[in-house]
Fold each of these.
Amino acid sequence: MWIFLDDSGDCGMKLSGGSSSHLVMAACVFDDRDHVEHALELVEEARMNTAPGGERYRVAKEFKYSSTKSSHKDRFFTTMSAAEFRVRAIILDKRLLWSERLLENPSHLKNELIYQLMSSHYDTLEGAKLVIDGQDTRAFDISDRDHFMARVNLRAPGTLIDVEFADSKRNGLVQLADMTAGAIRRYHESGDSKAQTHVETFRHRAYQRNGGTYWHFK
């Protein structure tokens, strides 16, 4: 089992001073290596676009929801609909956060959301390798992978067998997690209709009956 994870939003609590109102953590879960390889092929397929004049061209930039061109997002989500994976997403509206511990230590928010996502899964995750953007280890507060694995496995034995830090620019499935998290946050923050359309392409993957989650954390 392979889990590719990324976030959208920040840990800041100055909601009227530039901090995002929402923080989203999204994990794309693959049960089989063949599914991983097929998804990587689809990411490459999503890079191929057609210009108005009919010329074919390849999108070379990293897929990031915050900066990817709208038409390229459409192409990405349409193409990835053919992949086989589950989505586990946790959505925090910081305006509703009640935990005194997290309110007093907002820098721990991302770590807490990852921990909850990985350990509260009702036996739907087992023997998984977790892949995270290596650029975000400080933000995620997971510089010590062994400590994080031990904490998760103490609560949910056998969940993780490895935590790997990858370069998102080179890892198409970390980019998939970014695009997933970004679409969810955009939709919940602003009700953006385009983001809603993107979310609808994978919302069924987050149904509990399919082994996913779409968890509004408070």
Note: The longest strand covers residues 22-30.
Amino acid sequence: MTSLPSSVTLLRHATLVDGGRHDVVLDEGVVVAVTAAGSVPVTDPETTLDLDGWLLLTAPAEPHAHLDKALSFDLIDPPYGDLGSAILSWTTYAATMSLESIVERARTQALAMLANGITAIRTHVDVHPGAPTRGLEALGRVREELAGLIDIELVALCSTQAGDADIEAALDAGVDLVGGAPHLAEDPVAEVERLVGFAARRGLGMDLHTDESLDGPVTLDTYALAVRGLRRDRQYSAGHCVRLGSMPREELFRIIGEVRASDIGVIANPITNLYLQGWEHPTRTPRGLTALRDLIDAGVRVAAGADNVRDPFNPVGRSCAFETASLLISAGHLSPVEAWHLVSDGARSVMGLPAAGPRVGARAELLAVRAGNLLDAIANAPADRIVLHDGRVVARSELRRSIAVPAFSA
């Protein structure tokens, strides 16, 4: 494939997740028809893509990123370790970084994610005491620069050390949601109530880092009860929720019931939680994941994200939803269809985005990969990809491979 149209009206011969081959018709960024492969005549070759041999998926969305921290590992050179050591390394470095350095790393990271197929990102941005708007100004600039290529939501990650004035200043800078990490506070319940108060007064949704530990405080039930009376046209979600994976079953089911009643979306972050959790258990190390199966079976809206990428909280990461989906299968024991749902349709639901994908009436947020089926795509993460945002091609990747041919004897 040598060239691609910027706008697309027809995708021909695409393989969908169900194994069927179809033509997909687009109009102004919306899927208007899905028919048998080859049934739609080509009227404009310039806006037609032939996807014979390609798998067409709902484009993934990243529901939990930290673009202000991304790609800082080599700059910081932190020790490998748990959540506490990562926080210390990051806060020490953060006091020295400039707005421009945040912009550069965040832009690079967002574009890497876009190239891999992610067309929407929700990023948490630190509200540092004394410099509460620096990160939000940087990410606001990146969001503006990349408008039309990728959608970016901003969450004010309010430090437990940030005073009310700092938080007010951050919210004035223009954010989509109120965030924080109440389980790290001296009084976790009071911190939940403080952050919920800001959301209520501002009419904003919330996305909290919640109970990110194998043991320790539980705030998810407090959070669920606190937001039940808030505006229902806003999104409320909880990231990590690692504690759910290690608590007694009776308590687990009680809390899941509260989460379901408040329609709180839960966002798992497998790669970062597998890395950060369990350092204190040298043998029979816990997985460090939330209770995925129980949440899904209970009807909770569940998403999954990559979280940190190459920073003190996760030294690796490929900026790719196939990596997250693979971990959901191997560590979370989900099926390939369930795993892909969590990084695509599930993520979009938790983020409050319109339905997307190759089905009639959905937004044309699409990812085509050179793969035979979904498991093949997740297992191999093919480099050949075409990314459509709002019905337009916004990224394309091609792999060129050369392998020496061995001499076989007759």
Note: The CA atoms of residues 121 and 152 lie 5 Å apart.
Amino acid sequence: MTPPEQSLLDWKDGEIPVSRQFDDPYFSLNDGLAETRHVFLAGNGLPERLQEGFHIAELGFGTGLNLLALCLLQPAQPIRFTSFEAFPLSADEIARALDHFPEARAIADPFLTQWATGKRAFTLGSVTAEVIIGDARETLGQWTEKADAWFLDGFSPAKNPELWSPDLMAEVARHTAPMGTFATYTAAGHVRRGLADAGFTVERRAGHGRKRHMSIGVLA
């Protein structure tokens, strides 16, 4: 496993970060911000469900694009966001990636400034965020909170199967509040079965762009 702060990237077209380890881009080549809004926000019924104390958790922080998309909603009430990331990017790498999305980049400086100092807990507007560094197969089991909604945004299950294992999906369910939800860009059968076995009612929906399907679910 690559130590934290040493993620190795290639840059497609000079602007889209691609993990050398997983040979997978950090966001969709077909407008990653639009995909985030379609999959993770709309897929979890956001912003309609947001209320004071609402807690969102995420597997795979990456460039922070999902967090910034959430902040762009300008939630009226304080909400919480917790992300699990094994291979954190540097502030410079994140800034370079976010330049691809001017709307997100425009609000990113307070986050980037704190990230560059090593802070992994910070507040952006009404969103209190924490990024837990380490292998989610270890760190999620130690987490004591429960999320109202999950963004399952690891690298492709074909490239990073560890982040989609049945055991980890069971941990996701164990750390989900009653009637909590998940959304993910993947519709891989083994992922959907793992989530269903963990207790979620799983539904396949139309994906974003060229992706035919995505998955959403609610904890039964």
Note: The chain is about 30% helix and 30% strand.
Amino acid sequence: MFSVREFRPIFAAHVLSILGSVFAEVALAVLVFRQTGSALLTSLIFALTFLPYALSGVLLSGISDRYPARRVLVACDLLSAACVAVMAVPGTPLAVLFVLRITVSMLSPLFTGTRAASLADILDGDLYILGRSLVRIVSQTSQIVGFGIGGLVLVWLSPRGALCVTTGTFLLSALLLRFGTVDRPARRSGTGALMRESIASAGELLAHPRIRALLLMWWVPPTFFAVAEGVAVPFADAAGAGTLGFGVFLAAMPVGTVASEVLAGTLLGPAARDRIAVPLAAVSLLPMAAFAMRPPLPVAIVLLLCTGLCAAYALGMDKWFVDEVPEDKRGQAMSLMGAGIMTLQGMGMATGGAVAELAPPYVVICGGGMVGTVSVLGVLRSVRRTRTGVMSPA
């Protein structure tokens, strides 16, 4: 992959974007808490990472295919840098901080969808699948170590200083993409109202049985995975664990996910990754159902690690999805897919936390595993039943 010249700047820009996002979230959370002392307002900073995704994924996703990819990616980075730069200005009102945070979050699915579609133009065949896997590995790794790095940065810098660093990461990412990638033409032309066209095109994608089934396969498992993350604090507290135990519990699933994708990408060929996709997806939530036994913290960590180890099904899914979606809708499909994942993850976390007000955390995780397994099996039936031809371009 790294022998492909264009992939190197795209990968470096991805790392910078991830670091910038982590620094921004940590710095804003600290900044808002210092200004207000409110845990609720502070938690909204993290919630706003998820909530705008659905709106942006439907209303703006058409931009990905209607304009040249390089232009879209650079514009997203520059707009994000401008928003964060204003956040860093001393005296910026709290309401403005939240509006700017929403704006950056709405740009994120457009950026990630456009980048994912661009990888299919740059990497051929199995290299595309491995490239997508590597991008996911970096994202998962950021969950394991990113917030620790962000907290460490705040030892030396003020929250506003960290926001200035974030501005720099977005600007550097824009430079890498502007001068390190080829300026390819837009995938499709359009003269109508952008939002109306985006909504119509999203409807076309969802109306196609095969694409809808694959989108649901991307969306449903992470929704239930997030239930465990949503009750991580009360579960660790009930287990008598300190902050270290909570951190290890929260990191277990991402660690398993990274290990799974690395092993599948390096040890298995394309055909084998295709064969294991459905079985792994089918059993991916069963370890969470095993929380019915009320496991102690070490066993609970192993169970979540096992859930993460099933994540290699995504490599097979990547191939099926890019093969099925027509090229002129690829950017929008990727944006829609990412928006759905993030939105439903946020809903899964919130639902898990709400149910944990009424039931013990281990019961909530078990319920998420059981309901999730039934849901995934239903989606997998649709995935198998819809193995048909590619959607016709508009």
Note: The first helix runs from residue 7 to 36.
